[in-house]
Write a structure and sequence with these properties.
- This protein has 466 residues and is of the alpha/beta class.
- It contains twelve helices and 23 strands.
- The protein has a nine-stranded mixed β-sheet, sandwiched between helices. A seven-stranded antiparallel β-sheet has the order 8-7-11-5-6-10-9.
- The radius of gyration is 24 Å and the shape is globular.
- The protein starts with a helix and ends with a helix.
- The protein binds manganese (II) ion (2 copies).
- Residues 110, 270-271, 300, 343-344 line the site of one manganese (II) ion (MN).
- The site of one manganese (II) ion (MN) has 6 residues, from α7.
């Protein structure tokens, strides 16, 4: 017996075992996690597109005392500021007690999610119905987007330059839209297609109406009927779609999953789960030593290109403004800065174990995930954080009782992915990927665990407090 105990002790001292959050969380902490996720679910429901998420984040930040950044103004320690980048991405900061010469603490996540974007000439009529043509945004399994209720969001710039905001399908009294799929009875030929073409891109057509004008010999009367409704409500004509950004997203609301309500099921958790947790960590940090920077970026799902994505210089320009306040070259600030690139990780799914290597997979309820690297085919296209920086983060998390795990995205050569980490590392900033494990990533119903969400929040708070 004594020998057994000795081995047990030695095991716990020398061997590593992944820890389920629920083994160590107190009942109070579980309640705190559950409560935290009520705010999170509301954020998801209010922020289903990058524009809406940006707005929702500004509302939360302004309530917490953040004010729009004024270039050239000198800010004192504790000042809370934000930069709204074209209504689609957001940078928040709290000025630290220390000089920015010591670097700033950045957490960067993204608020765009995969969806169906309308084409620039979307409207057509066929088979006695009216439809919108779409071009999908981000990496989706196209078949998952058929036969689910869709809401429509976005903005239309009319010929006279005025903007109209569109939001249809969120209110219970609103109509919704959908992409129709073939009935199984007639799907023999469809089943023979490769799975990625089960639904083809050009088959993601959104059904938007079917009522023609009565007793009329003209063609396109269903299309005309739809346009008449849209003209009455929004004052638009068909040509106005050319200067519009309209996004179809799942109309469903965020829900608890499971008898124990331990999980969150919702659209757009990649990566609004990291956006919300980092935003809350930022606004709840009172007066940080180092200047805190919280970035909610756009365009990550399509490669971070565009001036609202992290591939643009917008973040560097903002940190330059901070450096200019103290007359310090921005490169000196950047090379001392630290970043958590906050994005979701693939959670281990026991129904599909073959794509994961269990020793290096992210498990649901095992805490926030640190990923040294993402990438594909021999780590290509990744940041690959240094042992030194991960060592630093590890110490910080252990000191603050954060439950965390490490993981990579699936088995070697099973596929791969990228994040914004390399774009921030490019500015000479120490960067590592961190995030929440997600099941059914990029689907209309992504799944996360409340305890992991809470651990992400706690880890971001510890990073900003450091
Ligand atoms: Mn992501
Ligand atoms: Mn993604």
């Amino acid at each position: 017996m004594a020998e057994n105990k000795k081995i047990k002790d030695l095991k716990s001292k020398l061997l590593y075992e992944k820890q389920n959050v629920h083994k160590t969380l107190t009942n109070e902490e579980i309640t705190a996690a559950d409560n935290f996720c009520e705010g999170y679910k509301a954020f998801l429901d209010n922020g289903k597109t990058e524009r809406l998420a940006c707005n929702a984040a500004i509302t939360i930040a302004e309530k917490a005392g953040f004010k729009e950044f004024v270039q050239g103004k000198k800010y004192k320690a504790g000042s809370k500021i934000y930069v709204n980048n074209r209504g689609k991405s957001l940078i928040l900061a709290i000025i630290g007690k220390e000089s920015v010469a010591n670097g700033v603490n950045i957490i960067a996540s993204h608020i765009d999610s995969p969806r169906l974007d309308l084409k620039q000439n979307p409207l057509y009529e066929d088979g006695g119905m009216a439809y919108f043509k779409t071009h999908y945004y981000g990496g989706i399994k196209k078949y998952q987007w058929t036969a689910v209720p869709l809401a429509l969001h976005g903005v239309i710039l009319k010929a006279d330059g005025t903007a109209v905001t569109i939001c249809i399908g969120e209110d219970d009294n609103d109509p919704v839209f959908c992409v129709t799929d073939l009935l199984p009875h007639l799907a023999d030929a469809q089943y023979k297609r490769p799975a990625k073409d089960l639904i083809k891109g050009e088959e993601l057509n959104i059904l938007i109406g079917s009522r023609p004008f009565k007793d009329n010999k003209e063609t396109d009367t269903i299309k005309l009927g739809i346009m008449k409704l849209l003209n009455e409500k929004y004052g638009i004509t068909e040509r106005d779609f050319v200067s519009a950004e309209l996004e179809a997203v799942p109309a469903s609301k965020a829900r608890d999953i499971g008898f124990d309500k331990s999980l969150v099921g919702a659209y757009g958790q990649d990566d609004r789960v990291c956006a919300y947790t980092s935003l809350m960590a930022a606004i709840e940090t009172k007066s940080p030593n180092k200047t805190l920077v919280c970035v909610l970026a756009d365009k990550e799902e399509i490669g971070s290109y565009g001036n609202t994505g992290l591939g643009s210089l917008a973040l560097e320009y903002f940190i330059t403004d901070l450096a200019d306040m103290e007359n310090i070259p921005v490169r000196r600030v950047l090379s001392k800065s630290k970043c958590l690139s906050a994005d979701v990780s693939a959670g281990f799914d026991p129904t599909f174990p073959d794509v994961s290597e269990k020793n290096n997979a992210a498990f649901i309820n095992c805490g926030v995930v640190i990923s040294k690297f993402f990438g594909a085919r021999g780590k290509a296209g990744t940041n690959d954080a240094s042992a030194e920086y991960i060592g630093e983060i590890r110490q910080l998390f252990d000191k603050n009782n954060i439950i965390w795990q490490t993981a990579e995205m699936g088995k070697v050569d099973a596929g791969g992915a990228g994040t914004v980490a390399m774009l921030i590392a490019k500015m000479d900033v120490d960067t590592v990927d961190i995030g929440v494990p997600v099941l059914s990533m990029h689907s209309p119903m992504e799944v996360t665990a409340k305890s992991d969400i809470y651990m992400a929040y706690k880890s971001f708070k510890a990073f900003y407090d450091n």
